[in-house]
């Protein structure tokens, strides 16, 4: 998953070298030209992580899929540009060893083999669009190759395509067009349904989802949205009510999908969830094919639960010709056209070309997906705290009750270091990463963390608590607080009313040391179950035996309590994910008042 790929990158000391000014790092060597600096004439393969061009040569950019003219022009001003479309994987592997940068859309799989075949010469992969699921990020990082994308330029195009599919589906435009062209005139068969006054549920209220909502309001639809992480005031501002997942399913006449494909959203529409929908619901998908169980959709269409579906994206693209889904008469399909407008393609072409040229020049990019930015020595010292920061972010956001919307986060660093000696940018970026990546298609690193947080209306304030003692360790503890939200685990709310988690690094391992007002101590290595109960004998045994029966290994257990036999929180670290059944059984233990499972 991208999240882990980019954290690997951020932690890898080899890639961290790329974070230093390339000029400075390479100034002491000689014979190749590196951003105007002379380097030793040794094999290019020996220094794959730097921007290295032979003295007189321009870099070479391979454009493997059609790119807008304005983008090509920008690339050509700086580099030799080879536009070679429809290359086979073998041809791409052969060509890549002669290229410094590669530009693709979603149709080219940028695999590990490609990075291996590049022999270290490939420095930048530019994705002219949002999704980078076609790029092997871990391999890119391992090979010191920067990946940049174009995250905003096709938002409107995707939203417009969603609306085009919605209206075309409601009025059978595609089917009626095909029948007229086949010489038929079926006015009774293609009676449609009206949109005005109907309820549209927008699932995923991010960039594309909110643009779809805005347009659907203009069509006179009643728009609701489900997005556990969207701020309610942003929804309110365009007259959209945020609702729970089940409420969205139960009340929608139309459902439009706009969430990223993540482990949590994979096949989120399936037999079970189709059964919760209004009979005759109509579904639009311009997000990713994998969010729907396509076989279940065929069953729901056959059963009349789903009256129609309009799909731009598929689990496998292109889908097999004989796919029952594609052939279904109530399905309208387009070949992943969401971003395919002249304007969007010019926009993404410029966005990606600027990022690729900037990266080849050694500049930082706000759309870098895997760029490390911290000097190696700082990174080495901060390494365990970086892991702690990301995990605290991940834990904190999972404690937020759906629909609350996170707006304000306060991070407190307890440190004996003078403020000037502690650069918290990376820690803050990792907290942001931990909070946003699991719920979004955005990839966070030091370059884009603040930008992304701001774009999402997430305010992160930092406070440093100057502690007495030895400044040897850069940080004693990190505390993350989320204000003005409800929690799905009430005991995580501190006395002052915020969700609060706090952690420390012990022997190089990050630990969770506080939840709400309760002191706990559990290593942040696997996943965590938090239970609240009145302190009493036997609780550890009861929970432990449920987990033991399922062979789930408990790595850590700790109980934080107000006082003996008073309110307590039990934190249990587990190496494996317990089944839903085991979690249910834990929740049914009579003394347990509430519990939550937090994946790390
Ligand atoms: N068809 C196309 O050509 C095309 C074009 C652009 C984008 N896309 C796809 O559209 C999707 C949305 O793109 P975006 O730019 O709006 O991304 P975004 O990150 O701005 O928005 C995604 C939203 O989904 C929400 N979300 C995450 N998990 C959720 C869940 N379980 N339930 C409900 N909401 C959840 C997030 O909070 C976020 O607000 C992505 O999958 C992207 O790849 C497709
Ligand atoms: O992720 C994206 O940006 C869209 O799915 C568009 O993909 P495309 O560039 O292949 O059209």
TrEMBL record:
Record domain ACT: where: 528-600
Catalysed reactions, as listed in the record: (2R)-3-phosphoglycerate + NAD(+) = 3-phosphooxypyruvate + NADH + H(+)
GO molecular function terms listed in the Swiss-Prot or TrEMBL record: NAD binding; phosphoglycerate dehydrogenase activity
Family annotation (Pfam families): 2-Hacid_dh, 2-Hacid_dh_C, ACT, PGDH_inter
Gene3D superfamilies assigned: 3.30.70.260, D-3-phosphoglycerate dehydrogenase, domain 3, NAD(P)-binding Rossmann-like Domain
This protein's pathway: Amino-acid biosynthesis; L-serine biosynthesis; L-serine from 3-phospho-D-glycerate: step 1/3
SUPFAM superfamilies: ACT-like, Formate/glycerate dehydrogenase catalytic domain-like, NAD(P)-binding Rossmann-fold domains, Serine metabolism enzymes domain
EC number: 1.1.1.95
Protein name, as recorded: D-3-phosphoglycerate dehydrogenase
């Amino acid at each position: 998953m991208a999240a882990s790929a980019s954290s690997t990158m951020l932690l890898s000391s080899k890639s961290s070298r790329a974070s230093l000014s390339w000029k400075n790092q390479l100034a002491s060597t000689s014979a190749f030209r590196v951003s105007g600096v002379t380097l030793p004439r040794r094999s290019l393969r020996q220094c794959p992580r730097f921007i290295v061009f032979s003295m007189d040569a321009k870099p070479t950019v391979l454009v493997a899929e059609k790119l807008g003219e304005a983008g090509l022009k920008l690339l050509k001003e700086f580099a030799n540009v080879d536009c070679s479309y429809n290359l086979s994987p073998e041809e791409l592997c052969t060509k890549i060893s002669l290229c410094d940068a590669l530009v693709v859309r979603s149709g080219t799989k940028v695999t590990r083999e490609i990075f291996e075949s590049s022999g270290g010469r490939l420095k930048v992969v530019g994705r002219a669009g949002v999704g980078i699921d076609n790029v092997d990020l871990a391999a890119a990082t391992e090979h010191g190759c920067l990946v940049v994308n174009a995250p905003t330029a096709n938002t409107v195009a995707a939203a417009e395509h969603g609306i085009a599919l919605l209206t075309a589906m409601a009025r059978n435009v595609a089917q009626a067009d095909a029948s007229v062209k086949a010489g038929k005139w079926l006015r009774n068969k293609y009676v449609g349904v009206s949109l005005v006054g109907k309820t549209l549920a927008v699932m995923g209220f991010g960039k594309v989802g909110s643009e779809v909502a805005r347009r659907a309001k203009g069509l006179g639809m009643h728009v609701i949205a489900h997005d556990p992480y969207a701020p309610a005031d942003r929804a309110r501002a365009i007259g959209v009510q945020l609702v729970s997942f089940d409420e969205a399913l139960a009340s929608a006449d139309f459902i439009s999908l706009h969430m990223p494909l993540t482990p949590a959203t994979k096949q989120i529409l399936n037999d079970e969830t189709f059964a919760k929908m209004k009979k005759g619901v109509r579904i639009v998908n311009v997000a990713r094919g994998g969010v729907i169980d396509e076989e279940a959709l065929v069953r729901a269409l056959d059963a009349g639960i789903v009256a129609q579906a309009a799909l731009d994206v598929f689990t496998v693209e292109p889908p097999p010709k004989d796919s029952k889904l594609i052939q279904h008469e109530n399905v309208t399909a387009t070949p992943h056209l969401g971003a395919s407008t002249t304007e969007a393609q010019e926009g993404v072409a410029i966005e990606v070309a600027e990022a690729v040229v900037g990266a080849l020049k050694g500049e930082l990019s706000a759309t870098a997906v895997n760029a490390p930015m911290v000097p190696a020595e700082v990174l080495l010292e901060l390494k365990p705290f970086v892991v702690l920061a990301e995990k605290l972010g991940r834990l904190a956001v999972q404690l937020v009750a759906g629909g609350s919307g996170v707006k304000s986060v306060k991070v407190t660093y307890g440190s004996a270091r003078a403020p000037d000696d502690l650069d918290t940018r990376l820690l803050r970026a990792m907290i942001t990463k931990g909070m946003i990546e699991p719920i979004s298609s955005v990839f966070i690193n030091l370059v884009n963390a603040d930008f992304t947080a701001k774009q999402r209306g997430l305010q992160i304030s930092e406070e440093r608590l100057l502690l007495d003692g030895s400044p040897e360790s850069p940080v004693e503890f990190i505390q993350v607080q989320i204000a003005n939200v409800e929690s799905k685990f009430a005991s995580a709310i501190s006395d002052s009313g915020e969700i609060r988690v706090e952690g420390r690094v012990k022997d190089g391992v990050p630990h969770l040391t506080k939840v709400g007002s309760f002191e706990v101590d559990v290593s942040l290595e696997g996943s965590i179950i938090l239970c609240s109960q009145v302190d009493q004998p036997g609780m550890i045994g009861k929970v432990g035996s449920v987990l033991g029966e399922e062979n789930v290994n408990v790595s850590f257990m700790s109980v934080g309590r107000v006082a003996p036999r008073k309110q307590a929180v039990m934190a249990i670290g587990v190496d494996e994910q317990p089944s839903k059944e085991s979690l249910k059984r834990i929740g049914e233990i009579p003394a347990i008042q509430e519990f939550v499972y937090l994946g790390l």
